[in-house]
């Protein structure tokens, strides 16, 4: 998904900046990365197309490019290309976090929360090879980490792939349903606030 791609880009860019650009103030980059990771956690519960959100945030960053000189205090020595990259990265990150965080913590009204039975379109797992350091420049395979996902379809036609625990994954049948608690945020985005952790949604029967 989009945010997995975005997270990998962040990791690569920050790693390059930290190890190759001494003029970038690391604490501020670390703050931006922390904000991005926190926003990613909320994104996993928010029913939205991540590419649309990225396009909107990146558009704001591009429109405000004339303000990139504002980052002179952050990038030393003066480097126009680095300032531009810094501006695009930070503005895109904070705009994305602003929308996701604001929508998550500020419901649209007293009737914002509802129960809904979502259809389980598919389920799948992903494996990631974990490594450990075995020397100064050598890493060896350590273990395999498996992640579990459900693809859910909602009453309004939207679909969302969400991460779940192994227990929830094993209990859920493809083609069945999943009872969820949904909340509409202040920006109109739906957030899954209950039903994915394995605890039953209040007033709901067991999953079919």
Strand-helix topology:
Layout: H1 2-20, H2 26-43, E1 46-47, H3 50-63, H4 80-105, E2 113-133, E3 139-153, E4 159-164, H5 166-171, E5 177-184, E6 190-194
Antiparallel strand pairs: 1-6, 2-3, 2-5, 3-4, 5-6
Explain what this protein looks like in three dimensions.
- This protein is an alpha+beta fold and 208 residues long.
- Helices cover 40% and strands 27% of the residues.
- The protein has 5 helices and 6 strands; from the N terminus they run H-H-E-H-H-E-E-E-H-E-E.
- Strands 1-6-5-2-3-4 form a 6-stranded antiparallel beta sheet.
- Helix 3 (50-63) packs across helix 4.
- The longest helix is centred in the middle third of the chain and has 26 residues, at 80-105.
- Mean pLDDT is 81; it is low at 16-23.
Provide key terms for this protein.
six-stranded antiparallel β-sheet; 6 strands; 40% helix; alpha+beta; flat; 5 helices; 208 residues; single chain
Categorize the overall geometry. Answer: flat
The overall pLDDT average reads 81
- SSE pattern, N- to C-terminal: HHEHHEEEHEE
Tell me how many strands there are. Answer: 6
Instruction: Give the DSSP E fraction (strand runs of 2 or more residues).
Output: 25-35%
Head-to-tail CA distance between termini: 27 Å
Structural class: alpha+beta
Helical percentage:
25-40%
Low confidence ranges: 16-23
Number of helices: 5
Can you list the strand order of the major beta sheet? Answer: 1-6-5-2-3-4
**Rounded radius of gyration (Å):** 20 Å
The major pleated sheet works out as: 6 strands, antiparallel
């Amino acid at each position: 998904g989009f945010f997995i791609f975005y997270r990998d880009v962040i990791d690569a860019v920050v790693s390059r900046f930290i190890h190759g650009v001494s003029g970038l103030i690391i604490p501020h980059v670390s703050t931006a990365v922390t904000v991005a990771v926190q926003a990613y956690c909320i994104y996993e519960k928010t029913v939205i197309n991540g590419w649309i959100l990225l396009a909107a945030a990146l558009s704001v960053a591009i429109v405000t490019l004339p303000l990139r000189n504002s980052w002179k205090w952050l990038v030393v020595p003066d480097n126009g290309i680095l300032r531009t990259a810094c501006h695009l990265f930070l503005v895109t990150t904070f705009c994305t976090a602003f929308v996701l965080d604001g929508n998550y913590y500020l419901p649209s009204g007293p009737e914002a929360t509802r129960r809904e039975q979502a259809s389980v379109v598919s389920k799948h797992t992903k494996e990631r090879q974990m490594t450990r350091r075995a020397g100064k420049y050598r890493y060896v395979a350590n273990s395999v980490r498996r992640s579990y996902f459900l693809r859910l379809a909602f009453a309004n036609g939207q679909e969302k792939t969400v991460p779940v625990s192994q227990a929830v994954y094993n209990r859920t049948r493809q083609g069945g349903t999943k009872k969820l608690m949904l909340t509409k945020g202040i920006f109109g985005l739906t957030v899954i606030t209950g039903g994915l952790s394995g605890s039953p949604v209040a007033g709901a029967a067991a999953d079919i």
